[in-house]
Amino acid sequence: MRPTGDRPDTAAAAELEDLLGAGPFHLALRAALAARGLPLQRVRHHLAARGVKVGVTSLSYWQQGARRPRRPESLRAVSALEEILELPAGALLRLLADPVPASGARPATRSYRALVSVGAAVEQLLAGLELPADGGLHSLGHHERVRIGPGGELRTRESQQIVRAHRDGVDRYLAVHHGDPGCDATRVEVTAYENCRTGRVRCHREAGVVVAELLFDARLRRGDTYVFGYGIEDGTGGRSTEYVRGFSYAGGQYMLQVSFDEAALPVRCRRFARAGPRSPRTDLGDLTPSGRHRAVHLVEQGVRCGILGIAWDWE
After folding, report:
1. Residue 122: helix, strand or coil by DSSP?
2. What pTM was computed for the model?
3. Tally of structural domains, the chain
4. Which helix (H) or strand (E) holds 64?
């Protein structure tokens, strides 16, 4: 679940500079790749020309945070990447030398580790669909509504999005759903209900991940905007304690609303942000329920690269 944001080149450059200064490594690498517009296959060829052999899968794992380069040959590849991506010498290697920040927060039922390990599952599903990870769209606005069922399970989520195409010929969006532990991805249902229709749907049972094509009613040209909506019905996972969304790029508005069944009301709800899956929580704030004390929400006018979410305690 990684919508992108529309932004000018100056904002992208500033974001890259910030990530190179503070990390984490995988987000800095991803931002550098995006800034140069280099697909992973092309990067692999550039590395091979320098006598460095690294597979596309490994590069994908590195930028998703599923793995960190540690072996000498991998660190040599990172050094070569700095040259290929036109970064200052040592800019990426320095981030690998820093210890990974440890979060003081309690482990969540919906693990942050899943946000990085799920990347490998998504890459496998995308490879099966023969589609690029970059769908050619920037998110201008995203309103998301999540409903928690009577057993505390994530029952449904509905999304309405406004996007802008940054290349010609875009005619689909890839929706990614990652269920809570215990989720049966084969039973998750995806429904298109506004200006789109459901195409191919693939699932990774072990990771609890579903990737679905949402086919637009029109083929977009560069600069065109489009509004569409879809829903996902789950209800197969265990008791949920948070809902999070990751953003690979800055820009756009995001609204998240979480509503609870009267039979399962939490005792406390809080919003939070994280720079990355292993970073500590920031921007903490208690949320006041509304609508018969059954719903909470957050609104971010201009999202930044990282993670936004709402967490709740049952007792």
Report:
1. helix
2. 0.63
3. 2
4. helix 56-64
**Does residue 191 contact residue 119 with C-beta atoms inside 8 Å?**
no
For the chain, the distance separating the N- and C-terminal CA atoms, rounded to the nearest angstrom, is 29
- Tokens 């380069």 locate to 69
Residues 213-228, mean pLDDT to the nearest whole number? 94
Environment class of 269 (CB within 10 Å of its CB; exposed 0-12, middle 13-18, buried 19+)? buried
**DSSP-assigned letter for residue 187:** G
Q: 63 vs 40, 106, 273, CA distance in Å?
A: 10, 26, 20
Question: Can you tell me the distance from the alpha carbon of 38 to that of 68, in angstroms, rounded to the nearest whole number?
Answer: 20
Domain boundary among 97, 131, 148: 97
Give Cβ neighbours of residue 69 (< 8 Å, ≥ 6 apart): 62, 75, 77, 78, 96
Q: For residue 192, give the nearest of 219, 178, 204, 174 by alpha carbon.
A: 174
Residue 92's CATH number: 1.10.260
Residue of 206, 178, 156 lying closest to 112 (CA atoms): 178
311: tokens are: 């967490």
The DSSP code sequence of 17-33 is HHHHHH--HHHHHHHHH
pLDDT at site 103 = 34
